[in-house]
What we know:
about 45% helix; about 300 residues; about 15% strand
Amino acid sequence: MAAAEVKRLGVVGAGQMGLGIALVAAQKAQIPVTLVDSSQASIDKGLKFADQLLEKDVSKDRITQDEATATRSRLFPTTNMEDLSTADFVIEAVPESPYLKTSIFAQLAKICHSRAILATNTSSISITKIAASTQSPHNPTDLSAASRVISTHFMNPVPVQKGVEIISGLQTSQSTIDTTLAFVKKMGKIPSQSADSPGFLANRILMPYVNEAIICLETGVGTKEDIDNIMKNGTNVPMGPLQLADFIGIDTCLAIMKVLHEELGDTKYRPAVLLKKMVDAGWLGKKSGKGFYDY
């Protein structure tokens, strides 16, 4: 079956990830984007950030002022979920909470039209479980909505990182996969497909690496500078694991490690004690102004 054309995108969540996804779709795919968030303050903050990114691109001659203006005009912010009813493709990008995500998908199944793809940007939660939230508990064989649920796991920062993980659940149809692959390519991204296994590919590999670096810090194997420097200068990665954790979000790292530990049951995925303490302290990384480093 040929991939369906996506003429309008919906994004739930105007934080760093949601705003990045919306901006790239408006700029690269050149389609209108309905950006939904329950907080008007979050929307205002996100749009201000979008304006800054576009201004930076213009100043560096990456795009013209006309292109920046056209991109900005394709963003339609709202606090009303019902405004997603006309979207052909919806991407949820809210915090990594199973309850929050499943409740949103239960709403999307009722709000969106019967052909709309319902995608999540989750970095660790089961797609099969999220898709199940769109099914009636009295008729679990009705896959009319669940077959349209898939994951498009964009990498941070979205305007820069090319990779997108595509993860399908047990219920996901081939036509949903085909449409999703075609759409992320239209956004200028390079998709990689993963099975619906805890952490998928990227975080199954990345998060234990970050977690082990934190354990090395808390047990005195090395200072934060030495840990990051040896990985940058020894393996040619652009930033060390502790700085990377700050950019990802310390709370996000903890949430993903908890999912890996609980779902796989292996002690090698136990979250570092320091990771938990930093979340308790509110030291969440770059977004809070303090993590392993100060910002």
